[in-house]
Amino acid sequence: MTAQVSSSATQDVETPHSEILAEVRNHIGHLTLNRPGGLNAINLDMVRALQHHLDTWSTDPAIKAVVLRGAGEKAFCAGGDIRSLYDSYHSQGTLHYTFFEEEYALDLTLHHYPKPLVALMDGFVLGGGMGLVQGADFRIVTERSKLAMPEVGIGYFPDVGGSYFLTRTPGQLGTYLGVSGVQIRASDALYCGLADHFIESSRLPDFDAALSTLKWTLSPADDLKTLIESLTDSSPSAPPLATLRPLIDDVFSAPTVSAIVDRLRAVTLPEHRDWATATADLLLTRSPLAMAVTLEMLRRGRELPLEQCFELELHLDRQWFDRGDLMEGVRALIIDKDKTPHWNPPSLNELDAAHVASFFSDFKPTGA
């Protein structure tokens, strides 16, 4: 599909093989992540193309709103293209630094965008995909949506603003999601405040058609809200996290990851025992260092404004390739695929609190 755009300025940027499709219909800019074979994982070229289109449309009086979506039926975006970051680090390149700087700048653009943003979160919305949607005004999930910040599973921490949007969820739900990296479905995403509306995937073509015939009578945000609410369905099920919430709030308020695991092992209530055991077992497969740094990052992020959360994450990024577990996680799960990462340290019992604290010792946020 050839990109159709509103101005020659927007046509100047094209990603390889049209990895970002841009089109304007009825005063709405549509941006589609177009790597369905790779679950729309985002790379630096895509980041730059998205930034370019958004910047152009932000000052174009003919554009009233922007819609973000992913090509195919499997994913909005399954995260960043971490293989390219692995290759950059081992070839002593700069991509692994540049990517995060520009990706975070894009995410901030989305959070502060002057026109209404609609994010169609159909399929997987993981890691970097969450960074693209959490600044949107209308975050729409379907029965196929699967949301997660799964970074601890590859020896990393939940970035792209995770230290902000995870800590704005009720109670300790964001701590649970960040430290465990588990996936949630539509009902839990709505319960956590990580999504706003539920629409059956079968009705997405109707929604897209309605956007093309929408009459702009009020403000763009009000017109979009009326349209979205006319198609909104009730959530497909009760949110499982609502039942687990009291237990999660208690367990994930513990001061350390080891204490979290101990509290999970101590759960005896029959209705929660299986979940607690499975969660404890899962945590023991994650990078101990990544979980410990994540826990501290989230505790700090709760008290920081959005911009300083991104500064904190970038501060950690600049150390992580040399000092963290990401390269080993990528090696084990993506390069060699032996699925046996050798974390450093290998267990929670061997974590050094001073080492964890050292990742944060020189952090000085702007304006502090």
TrEMBL record:
Enzyme class: hydrolase
Catalytic activity: 3-hydroxy-2-methylpropanoyl-CoA + H2O = 3-hydroxy-2-methylpropanoate + CoA + H(+)
GO MF entries: 3-hydroxyisobutyryl-CoA hydrolase activity
Enzyme Commission no: 3.1.2.4
Domain Enoyl-CoA hydratase/isomerase: 28-360
Coiled coil in keyword set: no
Keyword Metal-binding: no
Protein name: 3-hydroxyisobutyryl-CoA hydrolase
